[in-house]
Design a protein that fits this description.
The protein is of the alpha/beta class. It contains ten helices and 15 strands.
């Protein structure tokens, strides 16, 4: 475990700042660049057809591999569009779940083991119908067949899934930006950094509010800052609720996170005045088939909503969910989005 973490830490440093390992991997990144460019050309010239849904499609994705804050952005987008008269539905890959040939569609309290942790969280947080399949076009078709009332589709991830045509592209990044600017595996990027100039909105997840003035305007891409405000905590086993401020200055509190950037969660808790006796960073999409908390002696363990969706079966009364809500520097973001969806879709590839 220590060796694995050390290797991951080395790679993370190389991806952010460059170095000898990144340099050695550059020839493989050249192959990635060739494959990415070839794929885009094929969709642009029509040699590989994309499915055009009968309703507008908003893709929320990233070019930096791993977690940057897409799920809170998807939830906020669904809620923002619903508040402006739309009936959104969501499509997602269903990471880590064996789906089979047919897409899986559901609403409400979905099982993470059947739909994936992020789709289950999105369904619970928004009440919107969710359809999961590795092929987003198939997921979109199943969603519209099961829920013909849906008049806009929000794609959770899928920026690189060009088989599903889209009307709006939103990229979410964090403080790491584009790292060392190189493509996988020499760097952290799925696509060249220049791709950011082609999208409609670039949302930068800054973690906590920084007090700087809002970023607005009609420039493309629209630049927006996002931060995550923690809400009232919920005991996973018993359902009790407690304000986050109740933990400030209290002893024997730990935190765990199986998300793309666990340290961001721990930083949010510390910013709220919580002293953490222990932190447990877990791999993204950790399945919690067995409890990882047995060695933790804390009386309270705070976890993310993405983890909480899978932790009920552990029956550990120490576990408390800390939900977050996305806030934005641009108060007109979703007004703009709702209006943009009424315009003809641009050609994309």
């Amino acid at each position: 475990m220590t060796t694995t973490r050390s290797s991951a830490s080395l790679l993370a440093r190389q991806w952010q700042h460059g170095g000898w390992l990144s340099g050695l991997l550059l020839p493989l990144s050249a192959l990635t660049a060739w494959a990415v460019a070839r794929k885009r050309r094929q969709y642009l010239d029509g040699s590989r057809p994309a499915y055009r849904a009968p309703v507008p499609v908003v893709v929320v994705g990233n070019i930096y591999v791993g977690g940057t804050g897409k799920t809170p952005m998807v939830i906020a987008t669904v809620q923002g569009l619903r508040a402006r008269g739309y009936t959104p539905g969501v499509v997602s890959r269903g990471y880590g779940v064996k789906i089979g040939p047919d897409a899986r569609v559901g609403t409400g309290a979905l099982e993470a083991a059947r739909y994936g942790d992020e789709p289950a969280l999105i369904a619970r947080a928004t009440g919107a119908p969710v359809s999961v399949h590795p092929k987003r076009a198939r997921a979109a078709q199943a969603l519209l067949q099961a829920h013909p009332e849906v008049d806009v589709i929000v794609s959770d991830d899928g920026l690189q899934h060009l088989a599903l045509a889209r009307d709006i592209e939103i990229v979410v990044q964090d403080e790491r930006g584009v790292g060392n600017g190189r493509l996988l595996p020499a760097g952290p990027l799925r696509e060249p950094a220049s791709r950011l100039q082609d999208v409609d909105v670039v949302v930068t997840n800054i973690g906590t509010a920084d007090g700087r003035p809002a970023t607005t305007g009609n420039a493309r891409p629209r630049q927006v800052r996002m931060w995550l405000e923690p809400g009232e905590t919920r005991q996973i086993e018993g359902g009790s609720r407690r304000p986050l401020s109740a933990y400030a200055g209290q002893p024997r509190i730990a935190a765990a996170a199986g998300i793309g950037n666990p340290e961001r969660f721990f930083t949010t808790l510390r910013a709220a005045g919580i002293v953490l006796d222990a932190t447990l960073p877990l791999p993204d999409h950790h399945d919690y088939a067995e409890s990882p908390f047995q060695a933790i002696t804390a009386e309270t363990i705070l976890v993310t909503s993405k983890d909480a969706i899978k932790c009920a079966a552990l029956h550990d009364a120490r576990l408390w969910e800390v939900p977050v809500q996305a806030d934005f520097s641009d108060p007109q973001l979703f007004d703009w989005l709702a209006q943009a969806l009424r315009q003809p879709a641009p050609a994309r590839a």
